Amino acid sequence: MENNFYNLFKRIIRECNYTNTYKMAWAKALVEISLEEEYKIDIISIDLKNIANKFIKYYWNQTIFFDLIQGSNLIEIPLILQYVKNLIRDYYSLLGTRRPDRFERIEEYIKVNMNEEYNDCLTKTIKTLKADVSWRFTFIDGKKYDEIYKYNKGDDKLEILALNLNILKDNHEDLFDLINYRWGLILETFNSSPRINKKVKIIDERDVKRSSLSKFKEYLDIENPQKICFICGKNIDNAELSIDHVIPWSYLYSDDLWNLVYVHKSCNSSKSNIIPLEEDIRKLKDRNKRLLQKLEEKNVNSKIVNELYLSIQKDYVNKFWIGCKS
Predict the structure, then answer these.
(1) H helices present in the chain, as ranges
(2) Entry pTM
(3) Residue 210: pLDDT over 90
């Protein structure tokens, strides 16, 4: 029984279609639930409310940091993603800032200060899970497998053997790797952004932290010693000095000299994750050529400079800007 359940569970993950990522989120939620407590009675009842809250967490984290597309229909995005995006929008509106936060960190804040909005998102997510995910998950090639769990369409709960939950628990590391890998493969069919699998995996591994950009100042100073803002063209006081990614960090998930410029903190905040205009791309390409020339004149040689040279040769700015726009 153990091998049959485990093999079926992995088969669902490997063979699911590429319409959206719901099955990956559902599988991940079940594995996560298996870790929450010791399951000793024979049959365990799992409330869809618990699973729905995990859906919100997964899509919140992938959206607020990387804004990943989760379905093949680019006009009508998956319903649960719509609900989560609305919740994020309301969160930003309440906070008055667009600083990204992991759902786990601010979950209680949202439930207290945005109770109505959160419950609306949760209720709609449960409704979608009932209609489209919970009962479909147990089907493989049109055949229903009750060995996975028992669920009647429309119910608020599913029933699963404690033995099977413990199998998920015993194999959770391998299953999380498999789910994340498959999730990344699905996302690659919808998203043109680089490092998709890394973006999916990093959400599980640790906090999504941005590295300090201070190491780039010595290079930026060589081309822009007056510290002229890339956005508004005015001088920047030290208190207002900030380094910005022209092509959004959420798209590239990388810090590269060829994409970094000096800006006012206020200009940076107002810009957020807006895709740059063609004029900005021309400015950045011209800046990179000037910067490389000045670095070569000063005989500055480092990995960062080599990457700048390669970015010009390979036209990374234009390449990633086009990908970002798409």
Answers:
(1) 2-15, 22-34, 48-66, 79-95, 103-113, 115-132, 162-170, 172-188, 196-205, 217-223, 249-252, 265-271, 278-297, 303-313, 316-325
(2) 0.78
(3) no
